[in-house]
Amino acid sequence: MGLISPLVREIPPRLTMNVLVTGGCGFIGSNLVRYLRQQRPGWKVITLDKLTYAGNLENLQALERDSGHAFVKGDIGNRELVDLLLAAHEVDAVLHLAAESHVDRSILGPEAFTVTNVLGTQVLLEAARARKLKRFVMVSTDEVYGSLGPTGAFSEDSPLKPSSPYSASKTAADLLALSYTHTFGLDVVVTRCSNNYGPFQFPEKLIPLMIANALEDKPLPVYGDGANVRDWIHVEDHCASILLALEKGQAGHVYNFGGAAERKNIDIVKGILQLLGKPESLIRYVKDRPGHDRRYAMDFTKAQRELGFTPAHKFEQGLADTVRWYVANRAWWERVRSGAYRSYYEEQYRARLTQGAA
Ligand code: NAD
Ligand code: TYD
Question: Residue 64 and residue 25: Cα distance in Å, rounded?
């Protein structure tokens, strides 16, 4: 990928490391924080999350008494806070996941996407550069490549042609991050991953929305003809790929990750209904999403070759496990749907907040 400053180097696997995870209360972030604590128990993990509608501190409940994890409520766009955090926790590396992440919301209101995804990333990069961090992993997306026809797959060299305000903002952040390697010698690795599924996904995205609606016998809204294709990766495989990028990725490089599981939306929806024993009469074909990307597919041979990545989860098994998780954790998604989950932070921190120590 062109010239890389001699300052930039691979970081060897380390026994101890302080890692800042931004967006650690979201779907992928919370799975990642738990994964890191399990896989690298000697590391300290610090979560920075603004707790937007998509951020749920309950997702990290399992770590409440874990001294190897610290949570900080705040905005990645707050430079003073970010500087303070990086210094106070002697952060070695940043895993940057915080984002506005939902395409439909970006169509309704694009501004927050530019503010958080572009400007917020810029603030983090500047702070990382100032402290000469060892590594900055920019968690990007396959949506930067735009849409595919019926054949082929995205490689790291595919042109970037984002279609939605969400994907355009992620593309800006992705390229900005790479520019910090080329221009300033900051050690950046970019990951571009396909659609994730698994536990703790906010029920506005396809799979959890369809599961929750089916469980409540509500209509299942399928956009357009339902023949749009996504490649699905289990969130745990994505977490593993982010750790691989952190430990083995080459500075200034981009890595694609995918689940080798291309599926039409309608087939997923029918599969969920079948797993739940619900009738297909719940399916409603609705007006298509504006600018709806037709197909995504990932060529992740570079990650296989250079990082030893391979998705461990098979989609049909992973989907069945995910459906089971949503059945068993109905209280979780009911609190999310009702908005009640947002009081968790206040409940959790009320005492500490009134003592001024949160
Ligand atoms: P999510 O919406 O579930 O979580 C995003 C988290 O970021 C939330 O906890 C939210 O509170 C936090 N956040 C938002 N704005 C913030 C700000 N200004 N400061 C601090 N925290 C803020 O998203 P997700 O699905 O877990 O995605 C995580 C990352 O992975 C995103 O960067 C997304 O673009 C990328 N990604 C997602 C997928 C997918 O299928 N979900 C696929 C590829 C890449
Ligand atoms: P989504 O989960 O929003 O992810 P993305 O748009 O980032 O790929 O949507 C996945 C696919 O499912 C996409 O083709 C849009 C479609 N979809 C529906 O048909 N109905 C829905 O209610 C939702 C949320 C998505």
Answer: 13
> Are the C-beta atoms of 30 and 200 separated by less than 8 Å?
yes
Q: Cα(322)–Cα(207) distance, rounded to whole angstroms?
A: 9
pLDDT of res. 352:
61
Q: pTM of the predicted model, to two decimals? A: 0.95
Q: Say if ligand 1 is within 6 A of residue 242 CB.
A: no
Give the ligand with the smallest distance to the CA of 22: 1
Nearest residue (by CA) to ligand 1, atom 42, is 195
Quick check: 115 pLDDT over 50?
A: yes
Ligand 1 center–CA 191 separation, angstroms: 14
Architecture of domain 16-198+231-261+291-312: 3-Layer(aba) Sandwich (3.40)
Predicted local confidence at residue 354, as pLDDT: 64
Residues 6+ apart with CB under 8 A from 339: none
Neighbours of 277 (CB within 10 A): 7
**54 CA to middle of ligand 1, Å?**
8
* Domain ranges within the chain, ordered by starting residue: 16-198+231-261+291-312
Instruction: Report yes or no: 68 and 109 within 8 Å, Cβ to Cβ.
Output: no
Ligand 2 pocket, residue 222 CB under 6 Å: yes
Buried b (16+ CB within 10 A) or exposed e, 38-75: eebeebbbbbbbbbbebbbbbbbeebeeeeebbbbbbb
Q: Looking at per-residue confidence, does 102 or 341 come out higher?
A: 102
Per the annotation, the verdict on 143 as an active-site residue is: yes
Query: What gap in Å lies between CA 57 and CA 200, rounded to an integer?
Result: 11
Residues 213-239 pLDDT 10s: 999 999 999 999 999 999 999 999 999
Residues 6+ apart with CB under 8 A from 305: none
Paired residues of 20 in beta bridges: 46, 94
Give 355's pLDDT tier (boundaries 50, 70, 90). low
